Prior knowledge:
Elements: E1 7-18, E2 26-33, H1 35-43, E3 47-55, E4 70-73, E5 76-78, E6 92-93, E7 101-108, E8 116-124, H2 128-138, E9 140-141, H3 143-160, H4 164-170, E10 193-196, E11 205-206, H5 207-213, E12 234-237, H6 238-246
Parallel strand pairs: 9-12
Antiparallel strand pairs: 1-8, 2-7, 3-6, 3-8, 4-5, 4-7, 10-11, 10-12
Amino acid sequence: DELRLTFPVRDGVVLEPFRLEHNLAVSNHVFHLRPTVHQTLMWRSDLELQFKCYHHEDRQMNTNWPASVQVSVNATPLTIERGDNKTSHKPLHLKHVCQPGRNTIQITVTACCCSHLFVLQLVHRPSVRSVLQGLLKKRLLPAEHCITKIKRNFSSVAASSGNATLNGEDGVEQTAIKVSLKCPITFRRIQLPARGHDCKHVQCFDLESYLQLNCERGTWRCPVCNKTALLEGLEVDQYMWGILNAIQK
């Protein structure tokens, strides 16, 4: 199964976030799918019905299943992937057990889960490969544009490095910056160099590695400067790509 990114669908919440009643061991939650919606879900591999649980204080709404929770949909028990730690919990995808019309989610608990919320929503799950191809078509910055941007950012990068203090004192000016050809995420050679639109550094990261990193938690932060670098603001640097290709061994 290929890696996929996950994005909420606009107006796609099917069951608004809800809490379980205190000390209620078994609860049923009904939702309805119009036949046309169900049909579209089944036709499109990039659409899914996502059910997840998260801690009520978590603004990021990261998936977090209490140990005692069990879920079944239309009387089919589902396996919750909790992974090795609480950051590796995965949401449930329900479309394969859903039907047109009335559907029932049954939640069974053996301990209080009042601290958690549950939500059911439609999500768009494009494959990393398709997103990568889309970005190459739409967000490939021409080399000359990249050079202009690098020049503009150069002074701010120089100012933030230690050499900047020399600038005013004895006229020493930084004229070069070392850029690694290794991705700061994987520490392997960059294949497709990218940055966020608001990034001020020359250093790039590998685009595919960055997309893969955001498949699970989707924090969308630049691994170089930690600024927000959302999907729609990513830029592929054709100038750096040319350099990487030129020195490919």
